[in-house]
Amino acid sequence: MEPFTIYEQQMQRKLTRWGIRLQKEPNLLERASKSIQNRINQVIPDKIHTTITATVKGIVQTTLFGITYMPKTDPLRGVSMADRDAKAEELLSLYKKIAAAEGAGTGAGGILLGLADFPILIGIKLKFLFELAHVYGYSTHDYRERLFILYVFQLAFSSAKKKPELLHTIKNWPAISQTFPPAADVMKQVNWLQLQQEYRDTIDFRKMLQLIPGIGAVVGAWANFGLLEELGVAGMNCYRMRNLQDKAAELADK
What we know:
Blueprint: H1 6-22, H2 28-43, H3 46-65, H4 81-108, H5 111-135, H6 143-157, H7 163-171, H8 173-177, H9 183-186, H10 192-210, H11 216-253
Protein name: ABC transporter-associated protein EcsC
InterPro entries: EcsC (IPR024787)
Organism: Paenibacillus pectinilyticus
């Protein structure tokens, strides 16, 4: 196998900088924002928390056990990282447009459709991540790959305090993934309430604006477009990291 290309070396440096940013302590604004969000959570009725948690849990169960998001194409093999990145950028561009159109439609429909956007948007994001996995050569037929997608999802939308722990898991995925029990038992290890709160808190402000009459359509498109962009950056970097780790392991074996 050929040594790392110039492009791959550039990506290694980019990933190092990205990892450092993720592990920084929350700044004053982030801490203040989190404090406000915690207060909001305390006044939201438990019934709403339960409903949202059940929604997230149902979608995640579909991710792990269903075929709803499974790509019809096989994972790409024998493709350079530069080519994978180019295909990933095309994929992200498409899904940002899909998410923006969906956000504009539900945002224009008022509060009820705005709330309906919550599960729809998660589905769009997960479908994107499934296809992204195949772009970088990983088959989502393996439940561990589907579980990896959930960690990427959490990394993109978790608090600054939580990101270092998630990044550690992703960096050490080859070893950690071998310790997982059967898929059915993995479900018991997920903190559903924490997952939905982290996700909701990250998108809270943007998505609440979507419910405001008169500006909902514009805000809905803007919010969903931005959220897919954030997910795209996290997803591409996580899969780049794995590609480079896989290559390093293969080079070490020779």
